UniProtKB/TrEMBL annotation:
UniProt gene name: nnrD
InterPro entries reported for this sequence: Carbohydrate_kinase_pred_CS, CARKD, Ribokinase-like
Ranges where the YjeF C-terminal domain occurs: 6-281
Enzyme Commission code: 4.2.1.136
An annotated GO BP: nicotinamide nucleotide metabolic process
Protein name: ADP-dependent (S)-NAD(P)H-hydrate dehydratase
Species for this entry: Weissella minor
Length: 282
């Protein structure tokens, strides 16, 4: 049976911060993506990660994106992704690695995806989005068994990965079998009513609408998920459910007075949204 997500998940997961905590308690998130064409995608993911409470955010991207990223998200650190030695050190030091938003499909991107999948260990949580999903499918790669892996495909990315055609993706059982075969711990199958698959079962999101059909909306979701799993020491499935619910609940609120929801504004609105839904709020 597919459960429906509701607002209760936010109060379960988004807790008030202890007074004596510091940035190291809230996760070091490394975002790898953004080629010469898609710098905006990784910038929006970084914006979302910072605004959703990640303690430390580092972006590894094509060097062409450095100043644009810093002008929008000065909180984020930057690594040129062509410096593999530094990048591998950054992976070892991070709690969460988000791979793929705006990464593109170049030969270098393919080699980088292979390298990152080899480097991550049981110490990191891996979030795989966008082009990295297409690369994994095209190159017949496997997600690493020892690393907790969250994949966030839209339906065509899922078709490439799972070989399940779009028309058959309502078959819950079939998607779950493919999830397990691919070593994906949590599958966020994005669509009009997004479904989350994990060993805890399936949950569906009833909220959301076409005002979210804007390029970058998925990149922002990936950044929110990465920040949530980096900071909330809670059941992993529920943490991802809270991230998915928060992303769309805020979009619904913004759509009350906007024809479409700009992903970058949604990213910036997350800190305010989380303050309004945190539990133990005095
Ligand atoms: N500002 C930036 O930098 C941005 C950068 N971005 C980055 O771009 C990279 C490529 O990602 P992508 O999703 O744009 O392209 P891809 O994986 O080829 O899939 C599209 C193909 O699938 C088809 N399609 C059919 N149904 C669909 C559905 N429900 N949902 C989606 N697609 C559907 C669609 O059909 P068509 O629309 O052509 O008829 C088309 O043939 C990725 O790394 C991403 O992060 C973007 O986030 C945008 C903002
Ligand atoms: N009509 C819709 N109803 C509900 N959610 C939508 C709709 N269209 C898009 N979305 C949401 O927007 C996001 C789009 O993700 P994705 O296709 O990866 O975008 P991008 O790669 O451009 O950032 C997903 O979270 C998806 O569920
Ligand atoms: Mg996407």
């Amino acid at each position: 049976m597919v459960k429906q997500l509701n607002e209760g998940i936010l109060k379960e997961v988004i807790v008030k911060r202890p007074a004596d905590s510091y940035k190291g308690d809230y996760g070091h998130v490394l975002l790898i993506g953004g080629d010469k064409q898609y710098g905006g995608a990784i910038t929006m993911a970084a914006q979302a990660a910072v605004s959703s409470g990640a303690g430390l955010v580092t972006v590894a991207s094509d060097s062409v994106n450095r100043s644009a990223l810093h002008s929008r998200v000065p909180e984020a650190m930057f690594v040129d992704w062509s410096d593999l030695e530094v990048l591998m050190e950054q992976i070892d030091r991070s709690d969460v690695v988000l791979l793929g938003s705006g990464m593109g499909l170049s030969e270098y991107a393919v080699s980088l995806v292979k390298r990152v999948l080899m480097q991550v260990s049981s110490k990191q949580v891996l979030v795989v989005d966008g082009s990295a999903l297409t690369i994994v499918a095209q190159e017949n790669l496997m997600f690493p068994r020892e690393t907790f892996t969250i994949a966030t495909p839209h339906q065509v990315e899922w078709e490439r990965l799972s070989k399940i055609q779009l028309n058959y993706q309502h078959e819950i059982q079939m998607n779950d079998v493919q999830r397990q075969m691919l070593n994906i711990d949590i599958l966020v199958l994005k669509q009009h009513h997004t479904v989350i698959y994990s060993s805890d079962g399936q949950t569906e999101l009833e909220q959301g609408g076409p005002y979210q059909a804007v390029g970058g909306m998925g990149d922002v979701l990936a950044g929110i998920i990465a920040a949530f799993v980096g900071q909330f020491k809670f059941n992993m499935t529920q943490t991802v459910e809270a991230a998915v619910y928060a992303h769309t609940a805020l979009a619904d609120q913004m759509a009350a007075y906007n024809y479409i929801v700009r992903p970058s504004l949604l990213a910036d609105g997350m800190a305010n949204f989380m303050a309004r839904y945190q539990s133990n709020f005095d």
